Amino acid sequence: MNRRHFFQTAGIATTGAVLLPGQHPVIAAAPAADAFSFVLLGDLHFDKLAHHDMAWLEKHKAGDLSQIKNYSRITAEIMPRLFATVRETIADLNKSPETRAAFTLHVGDFVEGLCGNETLAAKQNREAIQFVESTKLGVPFLFTKGNHDVTGDGAVDAFKHVFHPFLTAQARRLAPGFGELKSARYTVEHGGALFCFFDAYDSESLPWLEAVLAKRTARHCFVVIHPPVVPYGARATWHLFSSAKQAAQREKLLDLLGRNHAFVLGGHIHKFNTLARATPRGGRFVQLAVSSVVNAADTQAKDLLSGVPDYTGDQIKVEPKHSPDTEQERRAVYEVERPFVKSFAYADLPGYAVVTVDGAQVRVKMFSGCSRDVWRTVDLSRELAG
User: Fold this and answer.
1) Angle at 212 between CA 208 and CA 272, to 5 degrees
2) Distance CA 386, CA 45 (A)
3) What domains does the chain contain, in order, with CATH numbers?
4) CA-only gyration radius of the chain, Å
5) How does pLDDT run across 241-279, given as a tens digit for each residue?
6) Does the reported pTM lie above 0.85?
7) Cα–Cα distance between 168 and 182 in angstroms, integer?
8) For the segment 287-304, what is each residue's pLDDT rounded down to a tens digit?
9) Other CB atoms closer than 10 Å to residue 284's CB: what's the count?
10) Cβ contact 241:249 at 8 Å
Protein backbone atom coordinates (compact mmCIF):
# COMPACT_ATOMS: atom_id res chain seq x y z
CA MET A 1 0.00 0.00 0.00
CA ASN A 2 1.50 3.35 -1.01
CA ARG A 3 1.26 6.46 1.14
CA ARG A 4 -1.56 8.02 -0.81
CA HIS A 5 -3.65 4.84 -0.69
CA PHE A 6 -3.05 4.61 3.07
CA PHE A 7 -4.41 8.12 3.62
CA GLN A 8 -7.43 7.45 1.41
CA THR A 9 -8.17 4.14 3.14
CA ALA A 10 -7.86 5.76 6.55
CA GLY A 11 -10.30 8.48 5.50
CA ILE A 12 -7.69 11.23 5.78
CA ALA A 13 -7.94 13.89 3.06
CA THR A 14 -4.92 14.16 0.83
CA THR A 15 -5.92 17.54 -0.54
CA GLY A 16 -7.69 20.58 0.83
CA ALA A 17 -7.73 24.35 0.85
CA VAL A 18 -6.65 26.74 3.57
CA LEU A 19 -6.81 30.52 3.53
CA LEU A 20 -3.76 32.37 4.78
CA PRO A 21 -4.13 35.76 6.48
CA GLY A 22 -5.28 38.18 3.81
CA GLN A 23 -7.53 35.54 2.22
CA HIS A 24 -4.98 34.25 -0.27
CA PRO A 25 -5.86 30.65 -1.15
CA VAL A 26 -3.45 27.81 -0.53
CA ILE A 27 -3.80 24.25 -1.72
CA ALA A 28 -2.64 22.04 1.12
CA ALA A 29 -1.95 18.36 0.50
CA ALA A 30 -0.53 15.50 2.48
CA PRO A 31 3.02 14.70 1.35
CA ALA A 32 2.96 12.19 -1.48
CA ALA A 33 5.56 9.57 -2.24
CA ASP A 34 4.59 9.60 -5.90
CA ALA A 35 6.76 11.33 -8.47
CA PHE A 36 5.09 13.78 -10.82
CA SER A 37 5.80 16.09 -13.74
CA PHE A 38 4.47 19.35 -15.06
CA VAL A 39 4.81 21.10 -18.40
CA LEU A 40 6.44 24.51 -18.15
CA LEU A 41 5.52 27.22 -20.64
CA GLY A 42 7.16 30.60 -20.98
CA ASP A 43 5.69 33.84 -22.28
CA LEU A 44 2.83 33.25 -24.74
CA HIS A 45 1.43 36.73 -25.58
CA PHE A 46 -1.91 35.43 -26.91
CA ASP A 47 -3.19 38.14 -29.25
CA LYS A 48 -5.44 39.14 -32.12
CA LEU A 49 -5.54 42.46 -33.92
CA ALA A 50 -9.26 42.72 -33.09
CA HIS A 51 -8.30 42.93 -29.39
CA HIS A 52 -6.85 46.41 -29.80
CA ASP A 53 -8.26 49.92 -29.92
CA MET A 54 -6.03 51.14 -32.73
CA ALA A 55 -6.57 54.82 -31.93
CA TRP A 56 -5.45 54.21 -28.34
CA LEU A 57 -2.50 52.17 -29.55
CA GLU A 58 -1.38 54.84 -32.00
CA LYS A 59 -1.56 57.48 -29.27
CA HIS A 60 0.09 55.54 -26.44
CA LYS A 61 2.07 52.61 -27.84
CA ALA A 62 2.57 53.20 -31.55
CA GLY A 63 5.94 51.44 -31.52
CA ASP A 64 4.34 48.18 -30.37
CA LEU A 65 2.15 47.65 -33.43
CA SER A 66 4.71 45.50 -35.24
CA GLN A 67 5.09 43.12 -32.30
CA ILE A 68 1.30 42.95 -31.91
CA LYS A 69 1.03 41.89 -35.55
CA ASN A 70 3.71 39.23 -34.98
CA TYR A 71 2.09 37.91 -31.80
CA SER A 72 -1.25 37.76 -33.61
CA ARG A 73 0.38 35.71 -36.37
CA ILE A 74 1.99 33.37 -33.83
CA THR A 75 -1.33 32.99 -32.01
CA ALA A 76 -3.06 31.94 -35.23
CA GLU A 77 -0.34 29.89 -36.89
CA ILE A 78 2.01 28.46 -34.25
CA MET A 79 0.25 28.38 -30.88
CA PRO A 80 -2.27 25.66 -31.83
CA ARG A 81 0.59 23.42 -32.94
CA LEU A 82 2.56 24.16 -29.76
CA PHE A 83 -0.40 23.22 -27.55
CA ALA A 84 -1.09 20.11 -29.61
CA THR A 85 2.51 19.07 -28.91
CA VAL A 86 2.05 19.82 -25.21
CA ARG A 87 -1.09 17.67 -25.19
CA GLU A 88 0.85 14.80 -26.76
CA THR A 89 3.65 15.28 -24.25
CA ILE A 90 1.20 15.12 -21.35
CA ALA A 91 -0.33 11.93 -22.75
CA ASP A 92 3.13 10.34 -22.88
CA LEU A 93 3.96 11.48 -19.36
CA ASN A 94 0.76 9.90 -18.11
CA LYS A 95 1.82 6.48 -19.37
CA SER A 96 4.12 6.13 -16.37
CA PRO A 97 3.28 6.77 -12.69
CA GLU A 98 6.83 8.11 -12.20
CA THR A 99 6.24 10.98 -14.65
CA ARG A 100 2.48 11.53 -14.48
CA ALA A 101 1.57 15.13 -15.35
CA ALA A 102 -0.08 17.06 -12.52
CA PHE A 103 -0.63 20.39 -14.28
CA THR A 104 0.68 22.84 -16.85
CA LEU A 105 2.47 25.86 -15.43
CA HIS A 106 2.89 29.15 -17.29
CA VAL A 107 5.27 31.88 -16.12
CA GLY A 108 3.32 34.99 -17.19
CA ASP A 109 2.50 37.22 -20.15
CA PHE A 110 -0.34 34.89 -21.02
CA VAL A 111 -1.75 37.69 -23.18
CA GLU A 112 -0.20 40.63 -25.01
CA GLY A 113 -2.34 43.29 -23.32
CA LEU A 114 -2.19 46.85 -24.73
CA CYS A 115 -5.86 46.59 -25.69
CA GLY A 116 -6.79 50.15 -24.77
CA ASN A 117 -9.88 49.60 -22.59
CA GLU A 118 -11.30 47.06 -20.15
CA THR A 119 -13.88 45.69 -22.60
CA LEU A 120 -11.24 44.70 -25.13
CA ALA A 121 -8.84 43.50 -22.42
CA ALA A 122 -11.54 41.24 -20.99
CA LYS A 123 -12.30 39.96 -24.49
CA GLN A 124 -8.63 39.12 -25.02
CA ASN A 125 -8.45 37.33 -21.67
CA ARG A 126 -11.63 35.34 -22.28
CA GLU A 127 -10.48 34.26 -25.74
CA ALA A 128 -7.11 33.19 -24.33
CA ILE A 129 -8.93 31.02 -21.80
CA GLN A 130 -11.21 29.63 -24.50
CA PHE A 131 -8.16 28.72 -26.55
CA VAL A 132 -6.52 26.84 -23.67
CA GLU A 133 -9.75 25.01 -22.87
CA SER A 134 -10.21 24.06 -26.53
CA THR A 135 -6.82 22.32 -26.57
CA LYS A 136 -8.01 19.78 -23.96
CA LEU A 137 -4.71 19.36 -22.15
CA GLY A 138 -6.40 17.22 -19.53
CA VAL A 139 -4.62 18.91 -16.59
CA PRO A 140 -5.10 22.22 -14.76
CA PHE A 141 -3.52 25.31 -16.31
CA LEU A 142 -1.91 27.57 -13.68
CA PHE A 143 0.01 30.78 -14.23
CA THR A 144 1.60 33.78 -12.59
CA LYS A 145 1.04 37.40 -13.56
CA GLY A 146 3.25 38.95 -16.25
CA ASN A 147 3.67 42.63 -17.03
CA HIS A 148 1.78 42.39 -20.32
CA ASP A 149 -1.16 40.74 -18.56
CA VAL A 150 -1.81 44.05 -16.79
CA THR A 151 -0.54 46.60 -19.34
CA GLY A 152 -2.92 49.06 -20.96
CA ASP A 153 -6.06 50.87 -19.83
CA GLY A 154 -8.47 48.50 -18.11
CA ALA A 155 -6.02 45.57 -18.05
CA VAL A 156 -5.70 45.40 -14.25
CA ASP A 157 -9.47 45.13 -13.75
CA ALA A 158 -9.80 42.68 -16.63
CA PHE A 159 -7.18 40.43 -15.00
CA LYS A 160 -9.18 40.37 -11.77
CA HIS A 161 -12.57 39.87 -13.38
CA VAL A 162 -11.55 37.20 -15.89
CA PHE A 163 -8.39 35.47 -14.69
CA HIS A 164 -9.11 35.26 -10.97
CA PRO A 165 -12.25 33.11 -11.49
CA PHE A 166 -10.41 31.01 -14.08
CA LEU A 167 -7.46 30.34 -11.77
CA THR A 168 -9.87 29.55 -8.93
CA ALA A 169 -11.57 26.94 -11.12
CA GLN A 170 -8.23 25.46 -12.20
CA ALA A 171 -7.06 25.21 -8.59
CA ARG A 172 -10.30 23.48 -7.61
CA ARG A 173 -9.47 20.72 -10.06
CA LEU A 174 -6.62 19.90 -7.68
CA ALA A 175 -8.48 20.69 -4.46
CA PRO A 176 -12.29 21.04 -4.51
CA GLY A 177 -12.24 23.17 -1.35
CA PHE A 178 -9.95 25.84 -2.80
CA GLY A 179 -11.14 29.31 -1.76
CA GLU A 180 -11.96 32.14 -4.14
CA LEU A 181 -8.83 33.81 -5.45
CA LYS A 182 -8.52 37.39 -4.24
CA SER A 183 -5.13 38.27 -5.73
CA ALA A 184 -2.52 36.87 -8.10
CA ARG A 185 -0.53 35.61 -5.09
CA TYR A 186 -1.33 32.00 -4.31
CA THR A 187 0.32 28.70 -3.48
CA VAL A 188 -0.17 25.14 -4.63
CA GLU A 189 1.24 22.15 -2.79
CA HIS A 190 1.54 18.87 -4.64
CA GLY A 191 3.59 15.73 -4.13
CA GLY A 192 5.85 17.22 -1.48
CA ALA A 193 6.51 20.40 -3.47
CA LEU A 194 5.27 23.91 -2.68
CA PHE A 195 4.63 26.24 -5.63
CA CYS A 196 4.50 29.94 -4.76
CA PHE A 197 2.99 32.13 -7.48
CA PHE A 198 4.60 35.52 -6.88
CA ASP A 199 2.95 38.68 -8.21
CA ALA A 200 5.92 40.79 -9.30
CA TYR A 201 3.63 43.80 -9.79
CA ASP A 202 2.20 44.00 -6.27
CA SER A 203 4.16 45.59 -3.43
CA GLU A 204 2.67 43.14 -0.93
CA SER A 205 4.17 40.08 -2.60
CA LEU A 206 7.52 40.08 -0.80
CA PRO A 207 6.08 40.10 2.76
CA TRP A 208 3.50 37.56 1.57
CA LEU A 209 6.25 35.25 0.33
CA GLU A 210 8.16 35.64 3.58
CA ALA A 211 5.05 34.64 5.56
CA VAL A 212 4.31 31.68 3.29
CA LEU A 213 7.85 30.32 3.43
CA ALA A 214 7.97 30.68 7.21
CA LYS A 215 5.23 28.00 7.33
CA ARG A 216 6.70 25.78 4.65
CA THR A 217 6.82 22.05 5.36
CA ALA A 218 7.11 20.72 1.80
CA ARG A 219 10.37 19.15 0.68
CA HIS A 220 10.80 21.30 -2.43
CA CYS A 221 10.09 24.98 -2.94
CA PHE A 222 9.27 26.45 -6.36
CA VAL A 223 8.77 30.19 -6.79
CA VAL A 224 7.00 31.11 -10.03
CA ILE A 225 7.78 34.71 -10.93
CA HIS A 226 7.62 36.43 -14.30
CA PRO A 227 10.81 38.57 -14.38
CA PRO A 228 14.18 37.03 -13.55
CA VAL A 229 15.58 37.31 -10.06
CA VAL A 230 19.16 37.00 -11.32
CA PRO A 231 19.93 38.94 -14.52
CA TYR A 232 21.09 37.17 -17.66
CA GLY A 233 21.52 37.99 -21.33
CA ALA A 234 21.62 41.48 -22.80
CA ARG A 235 18.83 42.93 -20.67
CA ALA A 236 20.73 43.05 -17.41
CA THR A 237 18.47 45.65 -15.80
CA TRP A 238 15.22 43.77 -16.37
CA HIS A 239 15.38 41.70 -13.19
CA LEU A 240 13.13 42.16 -10.17
CA PHE A 241 14.05 44.90 -7.66
CA SER A 242 16.75 46.18 -10.01
CA SER A 243 16.85 49.83 -8.93
CA ALA A 244 19.22 51.11 -6.25
CA LYS A 245 16.32 52.17 -4.01
CA GLN A 246 15.06 48.56 -4.01
CA ALA A 247 18.36 47.09 -2.79
CA ALA A 248 16.95 46.06 0.60
CA GLN A 249 13.99 44.29 -1.01
CA ARG A 250 16.28 42.47 -3.40
CA GLU A 251 18.53 41.28 -0.57
CA LYS A 252 15.53 40.02 1.37
CA LEU A 253 14.22 38.15 -1.66
CA LEU A 254 17.63 36.59 -2.39
CA ASP A 255 17.95 35.52 1.24
CA LEU A 256 14.48 33.96 1.25
CA LEU A 257 15.22 32.02 -1.93
CA GLY A 258 18.63 30.91 -0.69
CA ARG A 259 17.45 29.78 2.74
CA ASN A 260 14.65 27.78 1.13
CA HIS A 261 16.89 26.33 -1.60
CA ALA A 262 14.25 27.43 -4.08
CA PHE A 263 13.74 26.56 -7.71
CA VAL A 264 12.80 29.86 -9.39
CA LEU A 265 10.75 29.52 -12.59
CA GLY A 266 10.34 32.53 -14.85
CA GLY A 267 10.46 34.19 -18.25
CA HIS A 268 10.16 37.83 -19.41
CA ILE A 269 13.47 37.90 -21.33
CA HIS A 270 12.22 35.43 -23.98
CA LYS A 271 15.34 33.26 -23.65
CA PHE A 272 16.35 29.94 -22.09
CA ASN A 273 18.44 30.20 -18.94
CA THR A 274 19.57 28.07 -16.03
CA LEU A 275 21.84 29.23 -13.25
CA ALA A 276 22.63 28.60 -9.61
CA ARG A 277 23.21 31.56 -7.32
CA ALA A 278 24.74 31.60 -3.86
CA THR A 279 23.58 34.14 -1.28
CA PRO A 280 25.71 35.93 1.34
CA ARG A 281 24.23 33.93 4.21
CA GLY A 282 25.20 30.65 2.61
CA GLY A 283 21.99 29.57 0.90
CA ARG A 284 21.72 28.74 -2.77
CA PHE A 285 18.86 28.70 -5.27
CA VAL A 286 18.39 27.74 -8.92
CA GLN A 287 16.78 29.82 -11.66
CA LEU A 288 15.17 28.34 -14.77
CA ALA A 289 13.70 30.55 -17.50
CA VAL A 290 11.93 29.55 -20.70
CA SER A 291 10.20 31.31 -23.57
CA SER A 292 7.25 29.99 -25.55
CA VAL A 293 7.16 32.81 -28.11
CA VAL A 294 7.78 30.42 -31.01
CA ASN A 295 8.17 32.35 -34.26
CA ALA A 296 8.57 29.17 -36.31
CA ALA A 297 7.56 25.64 -35.34
CA ASP A 298 10.96 24.24 -36.25
CA THR A 299 13.65 26.31 -34.58
CA GLN A 300 17.26 25.85 -33.55
CA ALA A 301 19.16 27.16 -30.53
CA LYS A 302 21.55 30.05 -31.12
CA ASP A 303 23.76 32.37 -29.05
CA LEU A 304 24.65 29.55 -26.68
CA LEU A 305 26.55 30.45 -23.51
CA SER A 306 27.65 27.82 -21.03
CA GLY A 307 29.60 27.85 -17.78
CA VAL A 308 30.45 30.46 -15.17
CA PRO A 309 33.25 31.95 -17.34
CA ASP A 310 30.49 33.10 -19.73
CA TYR A 311 28.66 34.97 -16.97
CA THR A 312 30.27 38.33 -17.71
CA GLY A 313 29.30 41.68 -19.14
CA ASP A 314 29.99 40.26 -22.59
CA GLN A 315 26.53 38.67 -22.40
CA ILE A 316 25.15 41.91 -23.75
CA LYS A 317 26.64 41.00 -27.14
CA VAL A 318 23.83 38.47 -27.73
CA GLU A 319 21.55 41.47 -28.45
CA PRO A 320 23.93 44.17 -29.70
CA LYS A 321 21.10 46.50 -30.74
CA HIS A 322 19.44 46.50 -27.32
CA SER A 323 19.89 49.85 -25.58
CA PRO A 324 23.53 50.56 -26.59
CA ASP A 325 23.52 53.76 -24.52
CA THR A 326 23.26 51.65 -21.33
CA GLU A 327 26.15 49.31 -22.09
CA GLN A 328 28.30 50.48 -19.20
CA GLU A 329 25.41 50.22 -16.74
CA ARG A 330 24.47 46.73 -17.90
CA ARG A 331 28.03 45.47 -17.73
CA ALA A 332 28.33 46.82 -14.18
CA VAL A 333 25.36 44.69 -13.12
CA TYR A 334 27.24 41.53 -14.04
CA GLU A 335 30.34 42.58 -12.16
CA VAL A 336 28.24 42.71 -8.99
CA GLU A 337 26.42 39.42 -9.65
CA ARG A 338 29.28 37.35 -11.01
CA PRO A 339 30.90 36.29 -7.67
CA PHE A 340 27.62 34.67 -6.59
CA VAL A 341 26.81 32.73 -9.78
CA LYS A 342 27.93 29.10 -9.51
CA SER A 343 26.57 27.67 -12.77
CA PHE A 344 25.21 29.28 -15.92
CA ALA A 345 23.68 28.41 -19.29
CA TYR A 346 21.88 30.57 -21.85
CA ALA A 347 20.38 30.13 -25.30
CA ASP A 348 18.10 31.93 -27.67
CA LEU A 349 15.66 29.04 -27.92
CA PRO A 350 11.88 29.20 -27.64
CA GLY A 351 9.87 26.11 -26.80
CA TYR A 352 8.63 24.40 -23.65
CA ALA A 353 9.96 22.24 -20.85
CA VAL A 354 8.97 19.26 -18.72
CA VAL A 355 9.97 19.35 -15.08
CA THR A 356 9.91 16.08 -13.14
CA VAL A 357 10.00 15.86 -9.36
CA ASP A 358 11.04 12.42 -8.12
CA GLY A 359 12.01 12.27 -4.47
CA ALA A 360 15.08 14.43 -3.98
CA GLN A 361 15.64 14.84 -7.71
CA VAL A 362 14.25 17.69 -9.79
CA ARG A 363 15.18 17.57 -13.45
CA VAL A 364 14.08 19.47 -16.53
CA LYS A 365 13.90 18.48 -20.17
CA MET A 366 13.88 21.38 -22.61
CA PHE A 367 12.22 21.05 -26.03
CA SER A 368 12.84 23.42 -28.92
CA GLY A 369 9.92 25.02 -30.75
CA CYS A 370 7.05 22.59 -31.24
CA SER A 371 9.36 19.58 -31.37
CA ARG A 372 9.00 16.38 -29.32
CA ASP A 373 12.79 15.94 -29.39
CA VAL A 374 14.66 16.73 -26.18
CA TRP A 375 17.16 19.53 -26.71
CA ARG A 376 18.74 19.49 -23.27
CA THR A 377 18.27 17.79 -19.89
CA VAL A 378 19.36 19.56 -16.70
CA ASP A 379 19.41 18.08 -13.20
CA LEU A 380 18.26 21.11 -11.23
CA SER A 381 18.73 19.38 -7.89
CA ARG A 382 22.39 18.81 -8.74
CA GLU A 383 22.74 22.46 -9.73
CA LEU A 384 21.24 23.38 -6.38
CA ALA A 385 23.60 21.13 -4.44
CA GLY A 386 26.70 22.48 -6.20
Assistant:
1) 80
2) 35
3) 19-378 (3.60.21.10)
4) 20
5) 999 999 999 999 999 999 999 999 999 999 999 999 999
6) yes
7) 9
8) 999 999 999 988 999 999
9) 20
10) yes
